[in-house]
Amino acid sequence: MADALVSVVLEQLSSIIIQEVQREVRLVVGVENEVKKLTSNFQAIQAVFADAEERQLKDQLVKHWLDQLKDVSYDMDDILDEWGTAIAKSQSKVNEHPRKNTRKVCSFMIFSCFRFREVGLRRDIALKIKELNERIDGIVIEKNKFHFKSSEVVIKQHDHRKTVSFIDVAEVKGRETDKGRVKKMLLSESSQGPALRTISLVGMGGIGKTTLAQLVYNDHEVENHFDKRIWVCVSDPFDETKIAKAILEALKGSASDLIELQALLENIQPLITGKKFLLVLDDVWNEDSIKWEQLRNSLKCGCLPGSSILVTTRKRNVANCMGSSSSTDILELGLLSTDECWSLFSHLAFFDENSGERGNLEDIGRKIAAKCKGLPLAVKCLGSLLRFKSRIEDWESVLNSHVWEIKEAESNLLAPLWLSYHDLPSEMRPCFLYCAVFPKDFTFERDTLIKLWMAQGFLRETRNKEMELMGRECFEALAARSFFQDFEKDEDDGSIYACKMHDMVHDFAQNLTKNECFNVDIDGPTESKIDSFSRDARHSMVVFRNDETNQLPATIHSFKKLRSLIVDGHHFSLMNAALPNLITNLSCLKTLKLSRCGIEEVPSNIGKLIHLRHVDLSWNKIKELPEEMCELYNMLTLDVSRCKKLERLPDNIGRLVKLRHLSVLNLQFVKMRGVEGLSSLRELDDFHVSGSDKESNIGDLRNLNYLQGSLTISWLGDVKNPDEVKKAELKSKKHLTGLGLWFGSRTNREKINDDEVLEALEPPPNIYSLTIRYYQGVILLRVFPGWINRLRVVTLWEWIKIENLPPLGKLPSLEELSLYGMGCVGRVGREFLGLGVDNDLSIGEMTSSSSSSNTIIVFPKLKSLSFFDMEKWEEWEGGEGGNKDKTNISISTIMLSLRSLKIIDCPKVKALPDYVLQSTTLEKLVILHSPIIGAQFKAGGKGWPNASHTPNITVIL
What we know:
Layout: H1 2-23, H2 31-47, H3 49-55, H4 60-95, H5 104-146, H6 176-187, E1 196-202, H7 209-217, H8 220-225, E2 228-235, H9 240-252, H10 261-272, E3 277-284, H11 289-300, E4 307-313, H12 316-321, E5 330-332, H13 338-350, H14 355-358, H15 361-371, H16 376-385, H17 392-400, H18 407-422, H19 429-434, E6 444-445, H20 446-455, H21 467-480, E7 485-489, E8 496-500, H22 503-512, E9 517-522, H23 527-531, E10 539-544, E11 564-568, H24 579-585, E12 591-595, E13 614-616, E14 637-639, E15 661-663, E16 683-684, E17 686-688, E18 709-714, H25 722-727, E19 736-742, H26 754-760, E20 769-773, E21 793-797, E22 816-820, E23 827-828, H27 830-833, E24 864-868, E25 875-876, H28 884-887, E26 900-904, H29 914-917, E27 924-928, H30 931-936, H31 944-947, E28 952-956
Parallel strand pairs: 1-4, 1-5, 2-3, 3-4, 9-10, 10-11, 11-12, 12-13, 13-14, 14-15, 15-16, 17-18, 18-19, 19-20, 20-21, 21-22, 22-24, 23-25, 24-26, 26-27, 27-28
Antiparallel strand pairs: 6-8, 7-8
């Protein structure tokens, strides 16, 4: 992280100097020279950092020098943060208007006192800068002893492993399924396919990509299928001339003295014309398609269809760059199974010994193989290491040891992981290393991780790109480079929202962050374990595993340099008594995550944590937050969701002008005032409209134009005047994609109805998800403007007065519809499909291009339909007891894309309509606690023949 820290310090210095000049506030005497000296020293260090980072792997003195640099950089970052905060607060005090009931002379005295205290603070900062400059001087002097090369002359010389095509097939265990899949891709020929197909094997370092490519390359069927086979080890950098020369040498036996790409390609072309060839490009890192384009175009000319290029790479972006654009051309290698790991390990560790000679080693060996978590490189490394060791003590030492403590194994494991790490852009490296704070096998969520990166200053916002977007790009880059695994993906857009990290990758990250990050499980007395960590640690996560352990270990108070404290209390930890002292001692905190810790009161001294940027107090018993929290000027994220006793936020919450994420989602509604000052907000999950002028009014949303994601506006029933809704200016929230409208309470309302409120609403233009709850109007689609055409997800909840469902079948983009608690609906018919409504209510172009231009397509894109808790619903028109002719519409034009239907807690509904029964797309039918219709779809029931083609049917009466 040292490189990133040095960059942050230099950026902070530049920013502060600009602020000082702009605000015409003089620096304390002597500080100007100190700042110039500090900047010069850091720039000199930055110039040699690339060389130092590589040399630390083999030189402990260099590693120690970098550790010293990190320590002083952390301290300097804190001081500059303190300085910048003081400048910003000073400016806010200058711009602050005194209260109407305060005399001017009083305001002048308060401001004068503030300025006096500020001078004292600046002197303290000046002394700290001078002291740190002395430390930097020592580091610079020591730097000169190492004779580092500057970044201008450093040439990357990585130990990329050179590969060849030969392999002993008998030595390979596992990958039979993957081999079959790759062979099928290579041997299948299609007249419609490309003349030259590119297939990519993607996976983390050491997972077996090269081995699989070798297996396929040497397969007898593959050998006979292709006229020519060529193997090229590419590595980094990607040199198209060298690759062309290697191809020519493989085809001709020599490349003579040719050195120009054009000449090489001219010699290659006649050798592949009319031939079907297989080219393996092993270990490709290049993401520049232009470098590959000329070579690929030359290879395409004249070759027979069915020719293929097989690429191995660690990065999915490379696969796309090389031409594997579809998922059918990309094979992401998974980990070996437990049995495959053991087969490979035992083959290497025991060699030719029979099971009787293995003795007591086999049980230990199985545990060691399992420890490798399916990574072939680790299995091969440890298996080979133990081949010539026969003592139980040696095997137990490997089993119980941290893998990086096994010197013989470290070099073999470190090299491939280091290559992947060093390939990362420098700004992404600290984001990867920060993951070392989490325990092994921890599932971390993308959005939470991005917020933690933001809090540490790893994501620097630019004019054209926000921090959140940069964080998402970084997360996706780490995932694409196989640093993450076990992905959990969003069903709608396929994006990754949660994942894990392989144990070996986690160990690697921890190895690079020794003395910086530590995590600990609390499961009984653990003081000695915590006490063993360095007092200079910067990031820590504590996880409570035992419900009998309910106190945070006292030792944690001594880690005074902590910047991150993440505690997962699992609802068991009670730390109310310890919290005030904890906050006092950990004054450098930027992240304080105390979820599920049984906290009842937040101490007022939290307002002194001036560096704090991320506070997560979710799932606690907090009743109120102290006003002092509003002094946390640098706050970016505040999460108090699921604090069911919390009723309101502090009155001066609007002072947190940098706040970007505010989560208040709760079992009850949290009141807030002053939210109009939070103009930097990107996330606000719930806004409670109050019936009181002294609390939150919907008009307070007017300035929050950066809001993203979903927003729920609760208790719209308390709106006094429809004009208040217009003041929210929701139409300006163009980044919102989801909107929830909860009407609920109707206190202090006499003549205003829900239709008036809804009609006054000017919703965001780009939302695709809409939820409306507790609505008591009579909805007309004319209430909504053209934005409703974009709706893909609609949820209607507890409309207690409505008897007929709205004409939702007319929504052209609707994919998911859920209806809850429509207690007065007895029949679902034509109006639901959008038939028989006035022409002026039609939405979008609803005609098909089939035989008749007047053919209406109803629910054209609907994939999921759910009905919940509709106690009076009896008839679904078009089913038994209904007359299909009444609909006057062809069944083939209704719900053409329906995949899933759920009917839950609907006791009176009698039958499904014919357009559902005869659906050829329905894949899932769920009927729960709806006995009449449920009996029909039990196996053997009268409705079974009509739905037996549906592969997944669940019925519980």
